[in-house]
Structures are given as C-alpha cells and as structure tokens.
Amino acid sequence: MSKLAVIAGDGIGPEVVAEALKVLDAVESRFRSRVEIERLPYGAEHYLATGVTLPPAEMQRLGRDFDSIFVGALGDPRVPGNEHARDILLGMRFQLDLYVNERPARLFDERLTPLKGKRVEDLDLMIFRENTEGLYVSIGGIFKQGTPDEIAIAEELNTRRGVERIIRHAFEWARANGRTRVTMADKANAIAAHSLWRRVFEEVGGEYPDIRRDTRYIDAMAMDLVRTPESFQVIVTGNLFGDILSDLASILVGGLGLAPSANRHPGRVAMFEPVHGSAPPMAGKDVANPMAAILTLGMMLETVGSADAARAVDRAVRDAIAAGITTSDILGGKHGTRAVGDWIAERVRSV
Ligand code: IPM
Ligand code: MN
Asked: What are the pLDDT digits (tens) for 76-107?
C-alpha cells in the first residue's frame, strides 16, 4: 500500500486538498486501490504557534517513510517574510534532492486559451524545471542593508551533474512518452556560465538520436511560447526560468487554477503540489478552483502505479470543464470549490 503524507498548508490549501482527497476516496472505491494517508500540521498556523517550520526529524521521515507528499499551498500574510514556506517547500525540494520539477501545460478545452485560433492539439507541453540549483540556492547575502551603499548578491549555481541529470530526465521522459522534440532554454548570450547548459544539452541529446533538440534564449522562448506554442513539446530549463515559464505556460491553458506539478527524484519520495499559491484573499470562501489540486492528485496516482485511476481523474476534470462545472476563474463558472470537487468525485466513481 502506498503511503502519502499530506500538508494542507495555508490559505486555500486546505480547501483544495479536501477536494483532491474527496476524489482520492472515489478512486479508491472505483479502483479498489488503497493509499494510507498521514496528515501533517505544518504551515503558517503551526509556525506561529510553535516557532517551528518543519522539524529536521520530520524531513528525514518524509524522505524515508513515504512514497508521496501532497502539499496544498504555503504562504500567509501573518508571516510576511514567508520563511515557513521557504523552509517547508524549498526545504523539501532541496533536502530531499527532488531535482525534477515537472509542470505539464495541456489545453483541455479550446475556450480556455487566451491565444487566438489555437486548438487543443496546439498546446501540450511538458516543462522540466531544474529544482535544486540555480538562483534558488541562497548563496550570497545582503551587506549594509538599508544604507545607500547596500549590496545584495545572489549567486547562480550550475553544476555539471545537476544540469546533466535534469536534461537527461527530459530526454528520457520524451522517449518514454512518444515525444519527438526537446527544447532547452537558457541565457547563454549574456551569461557565460550558461554555456554549460548548451554543452551538456548537446552531449546528452546526442545519445537520443530519435529526438530532435533545439535551444532558445529565455527571452525568445517566452515570446515563441505565446506566438507558436505548437512548436514545443518538452522544455527543459533552469530553476528561475522554469518558475517563470511555467506560470506563462499555465495561463496559455486556462491559468493557475488548472496547473499541477510534481517534484521528483526517480526512486525516491515524490512531492506533489498545485502550482498556485495560497491566495489568502480567496481562503474560506468556497471560490478556489480545486482542479489544479485534483490534477496534481492524478500525477501522484500515475506515479504510484495507478495509471487507470490517473486517466479517470484527468477525464473527469476534462468532463467537468466541458459541462461547465467550474469555479469563476474559468469560463465564467458559477460553482463553488466543493461543488466542483463533488461533481468530479462522482464522475470518477460512476463513469
Ligand atoms: C513555485 C513557487 C515557488 C517557487 C515560491 C513559492 C518559492 O512560485 O512553486 O513556482 O518560486 O518555486
Ligand atoms: Mn512559481
């Protein structure tokens, strides 16, 4: 039996997680599978009450005793420095060495894209964001803070090992999933260190003669993603560029309300989270779109070997959109968080 740790987190996190778990219930009854769930209390509330973000022993346990971790969202106005979110979310990515941030952007319904004349088959992207290096490593600091001489430095870390493993993962995924093209985005024309990405991309890509490879500078990538999204299948890039591109890609297919993600290190525990944040102003109002969390559950099911269940969850979300059972962020929906979750769970159970 697969073991799942759930960190519902802050803001709309608990609400969207509740809907995802409702759908998991439906999956279990329909597919007779079982997932053992343990809920963990970490988040802003816990941090404010105890001063503890995520105890180191818990991090070890997460890495050792679970197959999956499901996170709702982290971020709370009462923690303006966001230190708990950094400790928990970035903490898991870094300390569990989850070097692959997998962020698909698929168009479920033509009406969801803001791009004119694009069809469902034009938007089917997989973004692989390097998740353990880059500008996120917190190497640097602030000197003479608050003075006119203030200096703020953040170093970008790129290791050959780190660049190679994410690029290889992108090619392996492309091959395993019938894709024929991988695009790498960097800024090698301005940042000399990025030549490492170019060289490794050529070297590793050379081992996959069945897959075409091309490269873009990140600025041109952003432009082309909007202009000709159909020319991309798999995109691999560094941590910060991947953060930005995945938000851009999400809006091309309906927005953050529909964007799922997985953080992986093949063979180890995987962490799943909707790409969206905790959206404090929306919390507790039954207005958040639970579909991103539900699609994220689908990625988890696929990972733990329940491919049929994952497909059923995907299909139910697609059907809900087609039937107009949506929250107000997409297609002028009139339904609440719970009603959308109920509908999708029922669909999974019965279709
Ligand atoms: C994301 C988020 C995080 C990131 C923040 C909350 C630190 O934007 O998961 O994309 O930048 O990685
Ligand atoms: Mn982001």
From this structure: 999 999 999 999 999 999 999 999 999 999 99
Residue 83, H or E segment? helix 83-85
Q: Ligand 1: which atom is nearest the Cα of residue 75?
A: 6
Residue 275 CA to ligand 1 center (angstroms) comes to 8
Q: What's the whole-number mean pLDDT along residues 261-271?
A: 98
Q: What pLDDT was estimated at residue 318? A: 97
Position in ligand 1 atom list of the atom nearest CA 86: 7
**Catalytic pick among 247, 286, 308, 319:** 247
Alpha carbons within 13 A on the beta-carbon side of 201: 23
Catalytic choice (124, 187, 224, 286): 187
Report angle CA 68, 329, 5 to the nearest 5 degrees: 15
* Tens digit of each residue's pLDDT (9 = 90 or more) over 192-230: 999 999 999 999 999 999 999 999 999 999 999 999 999
Query: What DSSP state is assigned to residue 178?
Result: T
AA letter at 201: F
Residue with CA nearest ligand 1 atom 3: 243
Contact 72, 293 (CB under 8 A): yes
Active site residue 243: yes
H/E/C letters for each residue in 307-349?
A: HHHHHHHHHHHHHHHHCCCCCCCCCCCCCCHHHHHHHHHHHHH
Give the DSSP H or E segment for 184: strand 181-186
Residues that place a CB less than 5 A from ion ligand 2: 243
Cα(17)–Cα(13) distance, rounded to whole angstroms? 6
The Cα 203–Cα 199 span in angstroms is: 6
